[in-house]
Design brief:
binds 6-O-phosphono-beta-D-fructofuranose; alpha/beta; Rossmann fold; about 20% strand
Length: about 325
């Protein structure tokens, strides 16, 4: 291969830029030209391409977002759209592709690989919901953002002896809530993977207040429901005021943590090596501190599960 493309797709995640940098520099090191495709698959269709040299990825390892931008493309969902996209990149001499993104992006990557175009996926999403890797790029930064919010909310919650309900991201996944809950000491976790009734939450709140606890923080993963609905139910059961904070897209931005930068750099480097070695339809991931690759079809057909031991521990420790 003499020229490869790289794109970011779906929701952005802190660390995507570090992954782009790694792809570009490993490509250059391996005597391959790297072309950035802007705005995800839409950029393939609209031929929104930019050559990426050593200098064009300087000064981005610490920046959130993605310098290549990201978008959703309905046209790429169709066979016709994908044919057009492929025709465009082939016309530019691009012989292989690296896709940085989440589940939806990987469906596109697999479709391209199935059409005979060498494609490798790098998992980038704050949700940490991709099988085949212990961590996705951006998850650690998002968890740290939530921890920061919990710390601040706890100050005011303690001052007022109040109950706070915090809604965190995770479209179908409670991973952010679980890890932030454990590390932030939230009293209750409501996540899609486990059943938790509001009655159990209020019982714990009551026990806490009786023991002299000054604050109560309930974390709700958006995939499990709405913080507003939970707070209304808590108020109804306990007859106490609550406050709600929906963290939203704050979790998607910010400077990536050292962990996310290192992960992105390792995954980016390996993705290029794999592509140049002739692999396609694969995804790179980190499993038990090692970089491994797996079938994109596996990532798409399976669902991640949460570690029930961690869930149990978080609940015990926040007694
Ligand atoms: O998949 C990442 C994610 O941030 C989810 O946690 C969230 O549900 C979704 O993207 C939000 O997407 P959008 O930016 O399109 O509103």
């Amino acid at each position: 291969m003499k020229r490869i493309g790289v794109l970011t797709s779906g929701g952005d995640a802190p660390g995507m830029n570090a992954a782009i940098r790694a792809v570009v520099r490993m490509g250059i090191y391996s005597s391959v030209e790297v072309v950035g495709i802007r705005r995800g698959y839409l950029g393939m269709i609209e031929e929104d391409l930019i050559p990426l040299g050593v200098g064009s990825v300087a000064d981005i390892i610490h920046r959130g977002g993605t310098i290549l931008h990201t978008a959703r493309s309905d046209e790429f969902m169709t066979e016709e759209g994908r044919q057009r996209a492929l025709h465009n990149v082939r016309k530019q001499g691009i012989e292989g592709l690296i896709v940085i993104g989440g589940n939806g992006s990987f469906a596109g990557a697999k479709a391209l690989a199935d059409m005979g175009f060498p494609t490798i996926g790098i998992p980038g999403t704050i949700d940490n919901d991709i099988p085949g890797t212990d961590f996705t790029i951006g998850f650690d930064t998002a968890v740290n953002t939530v921890i920061d919010a919990i710390n601040k909310i706890r100050d005011t919650a303690t001052s007022h002896e109040r109950i706070f309900v915090l809604e965190v991201m995770g479209r179908h996944s409670g991973q952010i809530a679980l890890m932030a809950g454990l590390a932030g000491g939230a009293e209750s976790l409501i996540i899609p993977e486990e059943t938790m009734t509001v009655r159990k939450v209020t019982d714990k709140i009551k026990r806490g207040f009786q023991r002299g606890k000054k604050h109560n923080i309930v974390l709700v993963a958006e995939g499990a429901g709405s913080a507003l609905a939970v707070s209304r139910e808590i108020e109804k059961i306990l007859g106490l005021e609550t406050r709600v904070t929906i963290l939203g897209h704050i979790q998607r931005g910010g400077t990536p943590t050292a962990f996310d930068r290192a992960l992105a750099s390792r995954l980016g480097g390996r993705a290029v090596e794999l592509l140049l070695a002739g692999a396609s339809g694969r995804m790179v991931g980190m499993v038990g501190c090692q970089i491994r690759d797996s079938d994109l079809g596996f990532a798409l057909s399976q669902k991640t599960t949460i570690d029930l031991e961690v869930y149990r521990l978080a609940n015990i420790l926040s007694m």
